[in-house]
Amino acid sequence: MVSVKIDSVSKSFGNVQALKNVSLEIANGEFFAILGPSGCGKTTLLRIIAGLEKPTKGRIFFDETDVTDVPAEIRDVSMVFQFYALYPTTVYNNIALPLKSRGLSPSQVHERVEEIAKLVGIENILNAHVDRISVADKQKVALARAIAKQPQLYLLDEPLTILDPVSRVIMRAELKRIQKELKQTIIYVTHDQIEALTLADRIAVMNFGVVEQVGTPLQVYDYPETVFVGWFLGEPGMNFIEANVEPDVLKISGKTVLREREVFEDLRSKGYERVLIGFRAEHVKISKTPSTYSNGKGVIEGVVRVVEFMGTYYVVDVESDGAEFKVKIDPRSFSSSSIKEGEKVWCTIPLDKILFFDPNNNKRINIGGSNG
Asked: Which residues does the UniProt record annotate as the domain ABC transporter (predicted)?
């Protein structure tokens, strides 16, 4: 088990800057996810931690030891890739090979193979050839082989991406269980927000080589520091609408949507005349009955453009004078006949669920008492 410190790391490939001054600290025994879209630099960062790439600038520390110039083969890490690389032999032999290379006796190897196989849940297929097992089991074998090395650090690069949806759900739960039993540090790279939110103790959200935010799953979901983080997390992502700040009201396209004097005084005292308001689709209540303003709530009047059934919920697309946003509705409180495309609706949002963002730099504006 080891802590990891990434200190001001940058990486360029020719004229392309893949990482820009990245700094992170991962604690001993932490399950830490690096989340972001394809091409954001997350795999490059993982390869630098592993020693497979050298940073252009910056340093990497394991505990207090600078390992920036330490070769990959002696960093004592195990890496599991998106595309498993298994030896063309039995499951047993794939797990046993790293143990044999450490000089364990045959009896010790056998005992350890069975122990690891049981931990990962593949004890019933040890004698099977890897060509004859499922894709999910192959990824489990790759993980078992990584565990057999007994490293101080596990690096997992999109290990569930190639699995089918059902296997992915099962493996997520298995990974969480295995990490709790191993009590080892895991750095997990993924583009899948569900994986990051369900597995990680903390998440670093990356975009274009920059870390946009680091926090617990609840922190990055409920209080995104940037517009990108809010948009990237959530199904659907956070809504953002441009609004004008007037002395005692907030207006969208000239229509009052919120009356909350303390909030607007705070915004105007910071020099804001225009802001982006951000809110989650699941926090909006939609009605065909006109809603009036009340303490602690905002109301947006709009027209339904699209109603989508997503299986476990509905998503309603609403337009309000050119501004578009989404509302997420539990099917138990909604039927496709209750709200139809083209109808006028009133959408109510609790003030404590509204966040304010600077439209110039897309960063969250902290407002006393309402913005976390």
From this structure: 4-233
Q: What is the pLDDT of residues 314-343, one digit of tens each?
A: 999 999 988 899 999 988 776 655 788 999
**pLDDT at position 33:** 98
- What pLDDT is recorded for position 291? 67
* Phi, psi for residue 169 in degrees, rounded to 5: -65, -45
Distance CA 265, CA 369 (A): 13
Residue holding tokens 């969480």? 176
Q: What is the pTM of this model?
A: 0.89
Residue pair 238/266 in contact (Cβ under 8 Å)? The answer is no
User: 332 in helix, strand or coil?
Assistant: helix
- Coil, strand or helix: which one is 249? coil
Q: Which of 19, 60, 22, 26 is nearest to 40 (CA)?
A: 19
- Give the number of other CB atoms < 10 A from CB of residue 77: 25
- pLDDT tens digits, one per residue of 270-281: 889 999 999 999
The hierarchical CATH code for the domain 235-365 is: 2.40.50.100
Q: Determine the CATH number of domain 4-227.
A: 3.40.50.300
For the chain, what are the domain ranges? 4-227, 235-365
Q: Is the pLDDT of residue 370 over 50?
A: no
